[in-house]
Specification:
Oligomer: single chain
Shape: globular
Distance between the termini: 23 Å
CATH architecture of the largest domain: 3-Layer(aba) Sandwich
CATH class of the largest domain: Alpha Beta
Helix content: 40-55%
Number of strands: 5
Largest sheet: 3 strands, parallel
Radius of gyration: 21 Å
CATH topology of the largest domain: Rossmann fold
Bound molecules: tryptophanyl-5'AMP
Number of domains: 2
């Protein structure tokens, strides 16, 4: 097995247009920290081929890819320090997905909760939505990634990718390393309404780059501990989404104090949210500045994506050469 010398990190995000604070706390902020550290080989992918598994408007998609790329760079994914690219620019993703589909039992896909949720009550469900996790496994395996930083909602898909590696290696010989999940403190940010995870499709998000006023209005109205009805009631931080966010953006001393003051009713929810807002602000100011600069120079981000795709393609070509060989695919090389 040819494995990368440094730990190799891969992760992906759908081009939903706007990042929300769930994406950021659960994934993108961790990615940016890894870019800053420079200890690993880092690949980050805007997964447009995953985004077409539900209804979409072709004319919007490219625009959303552009916005996502710009915002990721603004968040700290410096294209000089990591490989940032768009999935469909490297066609080997879909090629490998087909091959992996042939070591993936139907039963494994039947169990995927995200498919169940997204297809529930719908008459028109696409094969692509069902085989979505196979494409996700291909994304990771194509680069022989060893670490995959994701939010908690992607863990089941990642487990399937690990199972795929075991099945593939058993059938064709040791080719792929088993990717390990990396989970951040904010790996499950709930929606503002407290109804399940924060998700654009549920309309319960705060966009990361929302103007400060509406950011605060939304945060102010966000669901907390449902049993804390009066200011004098002690709160339960362990069930409070605001506390989860504090754990991500506030210092450990502040988190400790928050716990203490909440459980003894010395701090009310609005004050707690004000402190959180200040801490968000502190982190977001440099990101907003960088975003405004990038907005003025869209060609820089487009060039970075082209360079990223070229680099990713070189790695993908090498893996696919091995894949075809061990699977016995393709014609014998001429003269071979
Ligand atoms: P996506 O685009 O839904 O989300 C991108 C990342 O954000 C995390 N996330 C959250 N974290 C905490 N709380 C939330 N409310 C929240 N909402 C989203 C997600 O866990 C994710 O890490 N299938 C993936 C994209 C993908 C991928 C891959 C990821 C495709 N191929 C290969 C890793 C490796 C997805 O739809 O993420």
């Amino acid at each position: 097995m040819i494995v990368p010398a440094k730990p190799r990190v891969f992760s992906g995000i759908q081009p939903s247009g706007e990042l929300h604070i769930g994406n950021w706390l659960g994934a993108v902020r961790t990615w940016a920290a890894q870019v800053e550290e420079q200890r690993e080989d880092l690949l980050f992918c805007i997964v447009d081929a995953h985004a077409i598994t539900v209804e979409y408007e072709p004319s919007d998609l490219r625009q959303r890819i552009d916005v996502m790329a710009r915002d990721l760079v603004a968040c700290g994914l410096d294209p000089d320090k990591c490989t940032l690219f768009v999935q469909s620019d490297v066609r080997e993703h879909t090629e490998l997905a087909w091959y992996l589909a042939n070591v993936t039992p139907l039963g494994d896909l039947h169990r995927m909760t995200q498919f169940k949720e997204k297809s529930a009550g719908k008459e028109h469900v696409l094969v692509g939505l069902y085989t979505y996790p196979v494409l996700m496994a291909a994304d990771i395996l194509l680069y022989k990634a060893t670490v995959v930083p994701v939010g908690d909602d992607q863990l089941q898909h990642l487990e399937l990718a690990r199972e795929t590696v075991r099945r593939y290696n058993f059938r064709f010989g040791e080719l792929f390393p088993e990717p390990q999940p990396r989970i951040s403190k904010g790996s499950r940010i709930m929606g503002l309404d407290g109804q399940g995870k924060m998700s654009k499709s549920k309309g319960n998000t705060i966009a990361l780059f929302e103007p400060r006023e509406s950011f605060w209005t939304k945060l102010r109205g966000a669901f907390t501990d449902p049993q804390r009805l009066r200011r004098s009631d002690p709160g339960r931080p362990e069930v409070c989404n605001i506390y989860t966010m504090h754990k991500s953006v506030s210092s450990s001393d502040e988190v400790e104090l928050t716990y203490e003051e909440c459980t003894t009713a010395r701090r009310g929810c609005i004050d707690c949210k004000k402190i959180l807002m200040d801490n968000f602000d502190r982190e977001l100011v440099p990101l907003r500045t960088r975003r405004a600069e990038l907005k003025a120079h869209p060609e820089r981000v487009r060039q970075a994506l082209a360079d990223g795709a070229a680099k990713a393609r070189r790695m993908a070509t090498e893996t696919m050469r091995e894949v075809r060989e061990v699977m016995g695919l393709g014609a014998q090389p001429a003269g071979g």
